[in-house]
Amino acid sequence: MLKIKYKVSEDAKIMEKDYENVNAFLQGQYLEVPPLQDHFMVVEAADDGEEISLKDRTIGGLFNYLNK
Predict the structure, then answer these.
(1) How many Cβ atoms are within 10 Å of 25's Cβ, its own excluded?
(2) Backbone conformation region of residue 43, classed left if phi is above 0, alpha if psi is from -120 to 50, else beta
(3) pLDDT digits (tens, 9 = 90+) for 15-48
(4) How much of the chain exceeds pLDDT 70, in percent?
(5) pLDDT tens digit sequence for 10-19
(6) What's the pLDDT at 65?
(7) Cβ neighbours of residue 67 closer than 8 Å, sequence gap 6 or more
(8) CA distances from 67 to 1, 3, 10, 43, 44 (A)
């Protein structure tokens, strides 16, 4: 399971979204209007409980990291 904690802006509250797996996240992001916008800030992301370390801490950065 992929768990993403994110903020829509710097001063926004932390929100959380879970995906069944990485592919479910990637498929959603390919939509014309993705469920999570590329500029949202990633507070924390974990795949099957293992934290993902990102240089670009945005949803776009997470997408690029997982889409390699």
Answers:
(1) 24
(2) alpha
(3) 999 999 999 999 999 999 999 999 999 999 999 9
(4) 100
(5) 999 999 999 9
(6) 98
(7) 26
(8) 16, 16, 25, 19, 18
What type of residue sits at position 51? E
Q: What is the pLDDT of residue 2?
A: 98
Task: Collapse the DSSP code of 24 into the 3-class scheme (helix H, G, I; strand E, B; otherwise coil) and give the result.
Answer: helix
d(Cα 50, Cα 30) in Å, to the nearest integer?
24
Long-range pairs for 61-65: beta carbons < 8 A, 24 or more residues apart: 62/4, 62/25, 63/25, 63/26, 63/29, 63/38
Hunting for tokens 């990485």 — which residue is that? 22
For residues 17 and 4, what is the distance between their CA atoms, to the nearest angstrom?
A: 5
Give me the residue label for tokens 């590329």. 38
How far is Cα 39 from Cα 60, in angstroms, rounded to an integer?
7
| Token pair belonging to 28 | 């959603």
**Predicted TM-score (pTM) of this structure:** 0.94
